[in-house]
């Protein structure tokens, strides 16, 4: 997930509007103040490149204090790693420029590979380690003895900026990630209630799909923001367990709500009261102001609903000639899912209470649900090769032409091709960066080349710069403009290059600016031409990974943890969504199929658990094993367009036969799981088939 997305979710809903909110103004004024403090401290310490300290403040600036600390921490780690790499590479290969740039390009490739496999802010730190080595090593070309001095200076400037940004974000009207997590979770519960209400009443499919996507993204955001909160205050570490468990329960509730939507046509009278009670509950929850201030009455009602859903209903003994037990199985299916939804939502509310009023956990609560993320190794290798190759080719051009300003071009190619490599649309992200940089150019010229040489001094600097940087910081607080605004602020300071003594020297100014702009444009061209990413190929690759996960659930000797499967599946769906958006309507069935795959996986796990139940007849246990092996073959080997093989038809037939000969609840639940799996695979036949990826 991108930093822009995290900002959007951490801010209030008004942050996306055109008018800045109070929170936006606080963020903007705090960021500009921290930048000025960092610059003033750089002057006092007589640092060689004081602009880096002020730029760092804007680079790590985030609306939430924990996000600033996290990005600052990984920026520091990345800078240290890049500095050590620069010292080592320059010391070993500095005598040979061609060998030096080759090794640096390989280092950038390795760091881009690692960055593509990680998530923000860890991914940012890994990418930074790559191009920091380039920033330090290139000025030392031909004079390797100064590389240690350059690395120390660079680290000092970065540390100063991080300290200023971190201290101000934590002390000046802070917005804490711990509070943002609670606020985000409360909104997620209400969104879930709204989604469930629409699902129970047959709401607008487009609105339900949008809510579903938002809930998936929110669950992933909660997992990432947990790290930020722990950096804000070590005391939050005691609540990390509650966050992890609550995320798992939120995903479970979402799966159950979606399944209830898919099975929303009740036929049996035993289901109608349950459905009405759930519909009334979520409707009242979503419509009650301050409903979650006290969760106790809601938890009590959910507990009663979940208990009622687990009771054996009165089922009809006679079925019609074409029914084949479908009504009986359908009733148990929907009651089971309704009970799952009520139980999961109850646990989410208890998790909210645990976050607001943490208590020491007992030994029985120590098992934390796994939060697993998807790693696209093929895309990571593509990004690494592209970044290394682009950097090397531009560096070769620089060495061949001996154009001194081309060093800046080499650095910008390395920065952009590494930093934006793993974005869903790297071309668009890089173009936004170019736009912000281009807009910054005339402002930097007027201030740095015209105003400040005539009116020197920190007071005049503040007078000229603050009216420019405050609107830029307001743009950084707005998710719609964060990319362009951040690029503007950073490159305005880079072009300006503030020093205590500013001089009029337009030649180097325009030469350096041109090298930066050309470097960004070359990187954009690299994204377009060199190993371009095809969104549909990525969609198929993620879908194939999800099918392989389902096959492993069927075949693995040890039954995987439910939370681990759900976490990984929803993370893959979250990665799938921006790719699907680029494929148009062609990708909609893949997104729907991926969500249905979560339901299939949960039912497979239910069947695996049933195999361990000693009350289940041996014949049924053997059938489940054979069915799961056949399902795995279906998932791994059937190709799109080919007819579905026996497992789907057999699942329906066996489910109907169970309903005809048994009234035991555990047997009917097995029949319900078989029917849900068959229905999901029939709804999305091409998703549950092996593609090209």
Notes on the protein architecture:
The structure is a single chain. The protein has 25 helices and no strands. The relative contact order is 0.10. It is elongated. Helix 2 runs antiparallel to helix 7 (147-171), helix 3 (51-60) packs antiparallel against helix 18 and helix 20 (535-555) packs antiparallel against helix 23. The protein has helices spanning 3-10, 22-45, 51-60, 65-93, 97-117, 122-137, 147-171, 177-200, 205-232, 240-262, 272-287, 296-310, 326-356, 377-401, 406-419, 426-454, 458-476, 482-496, 506-529, 535-555, 562-583, 588-611, 618-637, 646-661, 665-683. With 693 residues, the chain is mainly alpha-helical. Residues 1-17, 318-325 and 362-368 have low confidence and may be disordered.
The computed structural class is: mainly alpha
Strand content: under 5%
Count of DSSP strands: 0
Shape: elongated
Distance linking N and C termini = 23 Å
Uncertain residue ranges = 1-17, 318-325, 362-368
- Helix proportion: over 70%
Mean pLDDT across residues: 85
Largest sheet data? none
- How many helices? The count is 25
Q: List the helices and strands in order.
A: HHHHHHHHHHHHHHHHHHHHHHHHH
- Rounded to an integer, what's the Rg over CA atoms? 29 Å
Q: What order do the helices and strands come in, and which of them pair?
A:
Elements lengths: L2 H8 L11 H24 L5 H10 L4 H29 L3 H21 L4 H16 L9 H25 L5 H24 L4 H28 L7 H23 L9 H16 L8 H15 L15 H31 L20 H25 L4 H14 L6 H29 L3 H19 L5 H15 L9 H24 L5 H21 L6 H22 L4 H24 L6 H20 L8 H16 L3 H19 L10
InterPro entries: PHBA_efflux_AaeB/fusaric-R
Subcellular location: Cell membrane
Membrane topology: Multi-pass membrane protein
């Amino acid at each position: 997930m991108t930093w822009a997305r995290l900002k959007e979710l951490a801010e209030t809903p008004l942050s996306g509007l055109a008018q800045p909110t109070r929170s936006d103004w606080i963020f903007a004024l705090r960021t500009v103040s921290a930048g000025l403090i960092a610059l003033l401290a750089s002057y006092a310490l007589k640092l060689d490149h004081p602009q880096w300290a002020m730029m760092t403040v804007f680079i790590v600036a985030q609306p939430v204090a924990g996000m600033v600390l996290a990005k600052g921490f990984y920026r520091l780690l990345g800078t240290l790693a890049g500095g050590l790499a620069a010292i080592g590479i320059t010391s070993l290969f500095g005598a040979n420029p061609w060998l030096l740039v080759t090794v640096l390009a390989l280092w950038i490739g390795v760091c881009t590979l690692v960055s593509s496999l990680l998530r923000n802010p860890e991914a940012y730190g890994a990418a930074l380690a790559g191009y920091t080595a380039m920033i330090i090593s290139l000025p030392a070309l031909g004079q390797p003895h100064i590389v240690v001095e350059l690395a120390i200076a660079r680290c000092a400037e970065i540390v100063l900026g991080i300290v200023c940004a971190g201290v101000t974000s934590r002390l000046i009207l802070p917005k804490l990630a711990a509070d943002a997590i609670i606020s985000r979770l409360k909104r997620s519960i209400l969104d879930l209630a709204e989604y469930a209400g629409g699902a129970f009443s047959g709401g607008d499919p487009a609105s339900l799909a949008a809510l579903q996507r938002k809930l998936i993204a929110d669950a992933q955001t909660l997992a990432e923001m947990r790290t930020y909160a722990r950096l804000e205050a070590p005391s939050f570490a005691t609540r990390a367990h509650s966050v992890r468990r609550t995320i798992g329960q939120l995903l479970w509730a979402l799966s159950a709500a979606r399944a209830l939507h898919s099975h929303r046509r009740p036929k049996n009278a035993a289901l109608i009261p349950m459905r009405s009670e759930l519909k009334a509950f979520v409707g009242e929850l979503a419509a009650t102001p301050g409903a979650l201030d006290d969760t106790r009455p809601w938890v009590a009602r959910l507990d009663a609903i979940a208990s009622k859903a687990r009771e054996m209903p009165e089922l009809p003994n006679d079925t019609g000639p074409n029914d084949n037990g479908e009504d009986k199985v359908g009733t148990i299916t929907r009651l089971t899912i309704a009970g799952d939804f009520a139980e999961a939502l109850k646990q989410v509310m208890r998790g909210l209470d645990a976050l607001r009023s943490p208590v020491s956990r007992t030994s029985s609560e120590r098992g934390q649900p796994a939060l697993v993320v998807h790693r696209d190794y093929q895309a990571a290798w593509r990004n690494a090769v592209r970044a290394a190759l682009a950097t090397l080719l531009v560096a070769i051009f620089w060495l061949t032409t001996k154009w001194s300003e081309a060093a800046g071009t080499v650095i910008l190619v390395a920065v952009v091709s590494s930093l934006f490599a793993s974005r869903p649309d790297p071309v668009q992200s890089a173009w936004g960066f170019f736009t912000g940089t281009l807009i910054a150019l005339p402002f930097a010229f007027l201030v740095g080349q015209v105003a400040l040489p005539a009116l020197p001094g920190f007071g005049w600097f503040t007078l000229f710069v603050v009216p420019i940087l405050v609107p830029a910081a307001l743009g950084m607080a707005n998710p719609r403009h964060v990319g362009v605004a951040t690029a503007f602020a950073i490159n305005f300071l880079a072009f300006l290059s503030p020093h205590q003594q500013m001089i009029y020297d337009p030649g180097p100014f325009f030469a350096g600016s041109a090298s930066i702009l050309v470097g960004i444009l070359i990187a954009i061209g690299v994204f377009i031409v060199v190993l371009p990413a095809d969104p549909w190929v990525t969609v198929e690759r993620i879908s194939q990974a999800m099918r392989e996960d389902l096959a492993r659930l069927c075949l693995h000797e040890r039954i995987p943890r439910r939370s681990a499967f759900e976490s990984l599946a929803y993370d893959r769906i979250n990665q799938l969504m921006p790719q699907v958006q680029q494929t148009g309507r062609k990708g909609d069935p893949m997104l729907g199929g991926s969500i249905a795959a979560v339901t299939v996986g949960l039912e497979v796990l239910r069947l695996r658990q049933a195999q361990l139940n000693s009350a289940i007849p041996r014949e049924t246990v053997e059938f489940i094993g054979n069915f799961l092996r056949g399902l795995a073959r279906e998932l791994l080997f059937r190709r799109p367009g080919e007819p579905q093989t026996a497992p789907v038809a057999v699942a329906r037939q066996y489910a109907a036969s169970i309903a005809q000969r048994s009234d035991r609840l555990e047997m009917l639940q097995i029949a319900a799981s078989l029917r849900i799996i068959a229905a999901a695979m029939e709804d999305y036949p091409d998703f549950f088939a092996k593609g090209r990826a």
